[in-house]
Amino acid sequence: MRSNEEFARYIDATLLKPNVTQEDMRQHLEAARRFHFKTVAIGCAWIPYAKELLAESDVGIDAPIGFPNGYSTTESKVFETIDAFAKGATEADILINIGWLRSGRYAELEDELKRFVAAAGGKVTKVILENYYLTDEQKREGVRIVKRAGADFVKTSTGFAAAGATLDDVRLMVQEAGDSLQVKASGGIRTREFAEQLLDIGATRLGASNPHLLMV
After folding, report:
1. Residue 210: partners with Cβ closer than 8 Å, 6 or more residues away
2. What count of Cα atoms within 13 Å lies in the side-chain half-sphere of residue 46?
């Protein structure tokens, strides 16, 4: 098993519930700073507050784009990306238009993701497929589109669907991603054992909403 210090740097500590209070957020940010998680994944309106509280720390700020449904317009997603980075985000996770992928509208989806990557201006970009709604072939096609768009990561889930990351999905995505794309597993990661298994089969980032419980 990886040391806690090594393990923590795989974690995007997630707090994306709509009813989060400032006190909830403060506690989340302080825990992330204490454990040295890779990033905090938080609602974009909280980014300036997080930037202030995480100053001088090694914890980045991960912005959710097009959350939690993915069907906002490309133009709004691009603006949200630019705005999030301007306010202090260091990474961004965009949810694809799931309906476009399921409908075979691959060119439009690829164009949206290319515009997202361009708007990020060289910052770390992750693309969420929301695998719960997809067939295995749609997952594979989604990974191929993300690769062509030039993003850094492809991600399994938002955590808002009925199911999240699975070992089978991560294996499929790692196989399709090859060496040019990393895989982030997210959703339903509640034990250190499962988290370690996901890393062992090739995930290089984990999204977890209760990451302190994984620090054993």
Report:
1. 190
2. 26
Averaged pLDDT of the chain: 97
Amino acid 108 reads E
Among this protein's residues, is 93 annotated catalytic?
Answer: yes
**Per the residue annotation, which of 12, 152, 155, 169 is the catalytic one?**
155
Residue 129: pLDDT above 90?
yes
Other residues' Cβ atoms within 10 Å of the Cβ of residue 113: 25
**17 tagged catalytic:** no
**What CA–CA distance (Å, rounded) separates 67 from 63?**
10
Token pair, residue 6, equals 């090594």
146 is written with which tokens? Answer: 């993300």
Instruction: For Cα atoms 38, 67, 163, give the angle at the middle one, nearest 5 degrees.
Output: 80
Which of 38, 77, 139, 184 does the annotation list as catalytic?
184
Whether the model pTM is above 0.85? yes
Is 83 among the residues known to form the active site? no
CA 53, CA 50: separation in Å to the nearest integer? 5
CATH code reported for the domain at 4-214: 3.20.20.70
